[in-house]
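Objective 1b: paired records.
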Amino acid sequence: MRMFRILFTLVLGLMPLAAFAHTGVGHTTGFQSGFGHPFSGADHMLAMVAVGLWAAQMGGRAVWAIPAAFVTLMVGGGLLGIAGIPLPFVEEGILASVLVFGVLIAGAYRLPVVAGALIVGCFAVFHGHAHGAEMSSAMGAISYSLGFAIATTLLHAGGIAGGMVCKALCNEKVTRFAGVAITLGGAYLAAYA
């Protein structure tokens, strides 16, 4: 129970940083802007760390396949955003991803790798679209996309590392409590969106 309180407090403490990382914010071109985008909003950070955490919790091929599916389809969604192709419910899709990923971790759901990849991939399109739609023009789109793909990969790696540490040193309850904290963080963001 103590670990749950610590995780819950940490998530709530980071919420003031949750000035959503989405369209219409400042100058957005090049690698640095793309790299910084996933770190500029709690919704993206929670979802991307959760993908890695869930992949580690599932184990096996999921450790690389789940994050790879997310990054690949996120880049595809980013291209849609850069091209100006509208996608309905982007913000709602991003918030739903935090809630769903948190529930998957909290419930310790171990799905077939293909099913898990499809779930994260569908939500990744929303995240990518938000990244791509932030671009002010197609100039620098490649370096911008590379930046947000690398940042996302790092966030996934952080989640995987956390999941592996929990597997090695703790019990499953700690990982599941992290899922509860992610879900609560998503609910908080949804309530104040």
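Objective 1b, second protein:
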Amino acid sequence: MLPREALDFILTHVAIGSTVVEFGSGHGSELLAERFRLISFEHDEEWLGVTSSHYIHASIQSNHYSDLEGETGWYDAKTVIDNWPKDIDCVIIDGPPGAIGRTGILSIIDLLREVPIILVDDVDRPQELKLSQTLAEQLDLQTKICEVEKPRQSGTDRRYAILSRGDKI
């Protein structure tokens, strides 16, 4: 689940009724779906329909960018592109799980160019941190790395990154 601090940031900085896209859904999705037009790209059929979000099933496919990083793949890019909404105010990158990989989102980087806020969860892990840095560089975004008060169950620290245009952070 997205950390409470990340959810609070979104609730504070994204206008009610705005369109939010999330990659990977979780229990926090319901809170977001209550306030925003939430579109959830999800590969795991068991998570489809768990909350009142608008779910789009996108299977995991091999992907050039994922291959370069030794990852399993990413959501089917054609499904993402075909279902990409207009006027997105926030994108949350919290899936697929780290064991699969998230670098494949670079295959749709052009769709992210107008998004004012992108939140990348789990940047305490090297691959997600690298992804957030690559996105910030390629999209010319400001970055803020945020600490989560509650550590992971393993006891390690947890962080997320906020990438934004202008004065959003």
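The helical segments are 4-13, 29-35, 64-68, 77-82, 109-112, 126-139. The chain has one domain: 4-164.
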